[in-house]
Amino acid sequence: MYDLHTHSVVSDGTDTPTELAEQAAELGLTGFALCDHDILDGITEARNAGERLGVRVIAGIELSAKYAGVDIHVLGYGINPTPELDKVLAGLRRGRLDRIPRMIQQMDELGVPLTLEEVMAQVSGGSVGRPHVADALVAKGIVAHRDEAFARWLAAGRPAYVPKPTVDLVQGIDLLHQAGAAVVIAHPRIRGAAKVLTDEVLADLVTEHGLDGIEAGHPMHDAATRAQLYALAELLGVIATGSSDCHGTGKIGHELGSVTTPDGVTGELLRIISARGGAV
Ligand code: AMP
Ligand code: FE
Ligand code: FE
Ligand code: ZN
To answer: How far apart are CA 80 and CA 91, in angstroms?
Structure first.
């Protein structure tokens, strides 16, 4: 089994890439994909640890995209970075960083004191996000955990929410394809995504833009939703994956290996990557 969607401290997870590989080995997983948000910096470390431990590591990313005004996450697997992808990712990370002072300002206006230094003290990699703001609030004893910070201030629609820059969904898919990757839409039926990623839209992404798969199994998809998405993927002739979206201790209910993809299905994914010139 593979867990095809995990995060490390390089973005908003709480485990190092090495720790993820160690845990994957302990769980007896065949392998896992490291899919940090808008960054590839953890891949080499994960690969080195995976080689040592006999765990296959797939070079992944979770790209921040937008469709119909809604944030959509796109998983790219087997990435061979291109200059264009590197440029786009650098821009997304710049935008992630630039929004932090604005969030701090909003928090200040709400009477919650927080400094840039306190947020940056929670960041160990190159991709900064709302979870690091939440972690700073936890460190100050203002909230008990990340979820509380999101519910009170940081989630979309809450008072300290500041949107981040994204790429257009179709452009994102093309960009990842050009980097040799197999492209899978992450958790298409969570929160806002569910409103815009209808069956028809997913079908169009497959037929018009060569989408390679759908993340059907995900902790935030209920059993009926998962069954519906596995059936849709089969109907469309694309891969259906299942993954935990592990963020270490940063997300309860997303434990590594709690949702998985069989080796045979992952093999299909690896064949797509090979055919496209990606990294397997
Ligand atoms: P950002 O990338 O800065 O927009 O933050 C989004 C990230 O925050 C997601 O990748 C999740 O890891 C995390 N997240 C989103 N909503 C919540 C929530 N309600 N509770 C905890 N973490 C969340
Ligand atoms: Fe995340
Ligand atoms: Fe996501
Ligand atoms: Zn994720």
So the answer is: 18
Of 71, 273, 260, 42, residue with least CA distance to 172: 71
Whole-number Å distance between alpha carbons of 265 and 165: 33
The rounded Å distance from CA 11 to ligand 2 centre is: 7
**CATH of range 2-91+166-276; options 3.90.180.10, 1.10.443.10, 3.20.20.140, 3.40.50.300:** 3.20.20.140
Q: Report residues whose beta carbon is within 6 angstroms of any ligand 1 atom.
A: 12, 37, 129-131, 146-147, 150, 155, 164, 247, 251
Q: What's the token pair of residue 163?
A: 């949107």
The atom number, within ligand 1, closest to the CA of 151 reads 19
* CA–CA separation, 22 and 18 (whole Å): 6
Ion ligand 2: residues, CB within 5 A, are 12
139-183 pLDDT, tens digit each: 999 999 999 999 999 999 999 999 999 999 999 999 999 999 999
Summarize pLDDT for 220-263 with one digit per residue, the tens.
Answer: 999 999 999 999 999 999 999 999 999 999 999 999 999 999 99
**pTM, rounded to two decimals:** 0.98
What secondary structure does DSSP assign to 76-121, as a single string? EES----HHHHHHHHHHHHHHHHHHHHHHHHHHHTT----HHHHHT
Q: Where are the beta strands (DSSP E) in the chain?
A: 2-6, 31-34, 56-67, 70-77, 167-168, 182-185, 213-217, 239-242
